[in-house]
Amino acid sequence: MKKFTDFGLNDTLLDALFYMNFEEATEIQEKAIPTILEGKDLIGCAQTGTGKTAAFVLPTLNQVAEEESDGVQVLILCPTRELAIQIEQQIQGIAYFTNASCYAVYGGGDGVSWEGEADALKGGADIIVATPGRLLAHIARGYVKFNTVKHLILDEADRMLDIGFFDDIIKIIKQLPEERQSLMFSATMAPKIRQLAKQILNNPEEISVAISKPAEGVTQKVIMAHEEQKVRLVQHVLGDKDDFNSIIIFCSTKKKVENLARKLKQKGYACQGISSDYEQDAREETLRNFRSGKTRIMVATDVMSRGIDIKGIDLVVNYDVPGDAEDYVHRIGRTARAKREGMALTLVCPDDIFKFSKIERLIDRELDKEQPPKHLGEGPLWHSPDRKGKGRKNSNSKNKPNREKSRNDKPLGDREYRKPRQDRKKEKSKNRLLYEALPNPKTASQIEAAE
């Protein structure tokens, strides 16, 4: 394991790392920092919680500290406001002893924040961290000048593509000089990531670290639960975890976030919800309260599943199974960060069996399925889903029903003869016409009499 003093970084950066108690580099940092310092393009693939933000912040800050420029030198693009704020804060901390300045550009602010962003984009900051949509809104005004940009970084690139930023990213890149260093960091190496890499990277080095595997310190548990059991089950789990001081619960919809947060508050829990429906000020306040420990439980949509670094999370609850198997890894990656230990609990209802089976294939592990406590009633049973994903049994020969039996298990020979479907349809149509022809249609016996 290398130490940060082994990379030849600027003394001011090493001083900052010393005061932040950072000594040893993580695997992604050890592999990426030398490549970036050499000025090469890079595509880095690493799961959340491996320290990839510092892997690109340190070497680019090192170069900014040693170069003089009157404009923006580094442009970092990321998918969410929360991640933009977090990256900016991390840069501010590391750059404290340098002359480098950083500014975050993201939506949801007021007119004052817009003016501050505009000043930074006109050359008032060395490093810009931005969400693509907000940055394009500034570019459309005509005052953004990126001719001094030397480093482009895409963080959580797969997430940006998932939410439809491909065209926006290409538009932004067209504003940059062709001579630049480009870095792309992603948690997955999907084909669309490679497609984007071919367009924006020049003969890049490729680094992959622990792709799509949960951290070793995460204890993963699964409870089979019907939808109507979930709220009471969460309350039961929380009642048994008094020593867990920091908990995130992920829901699939904003409505469920509101509903669950309200019910937990009614039970006396220090709980807040967060989703894209919240105003930016409210979201930032919720994050501050959660980080400081004022709020013990945060109920969130997947807006919080990627890139957000909150230390000391003891428990992650998947109230709903995520639709994308990769998002499961990101969600439970909120806990057991930096070699700590944590727990991840997933509630699986019948409709989620197929999705969770995909997660098990991804993590290459079959997890034990528990039942809810007896006082909450019996949960659904786990069974392998079919290829259509409907939660039925596999269609192999062992699970196929006996063709000599009907649905009620009577032998075929004991059943009454049933007419072919086409004949039944003709008969039904004929009966309807006869029924409508009667002056006062009432009973089936009248139809028989009419025949």
Overview of the structural elements:
- With 451 residues, this protein is an alpha/beta fold.
- The chain is globular and about 80 Å long.
- It has 16 helices and 14 strands.
- The protein has helices at 11-19, 27-37, 52-66, 81-94, 111-124, 132-139, 157-162, 166-173, 191-200, 230-239, 254-266, 280-292, 325-332, 353-363, 421-437, 444-450; strands at 42-46, 74-77, 102-105, 127-130, 151-154, 181-186, 205-209, 218-224, 247-250, 271-274, 297-300, 315-318, 342-348, 369-370.
- It folds into three domains: 4-209, Rossmann fold, CATH 3.40.50.300; 218-376, 3-Layer(aba) Sandwich (Rossmann fold); 421-450, no CATH class.
- Strands 3-4-2-5-6-1-7 form a seven-stranded parallel β-sheet, sandwiched between helices. Strands 10-11-9-12-13-8-14 form a seven-stranded parallel β-sheet, sandwiched between helices.
- The model is unreliable at 387-417 and 441-451 (pLDDT under 50).
- 39% of the residues lie in helices and 14% in strands.
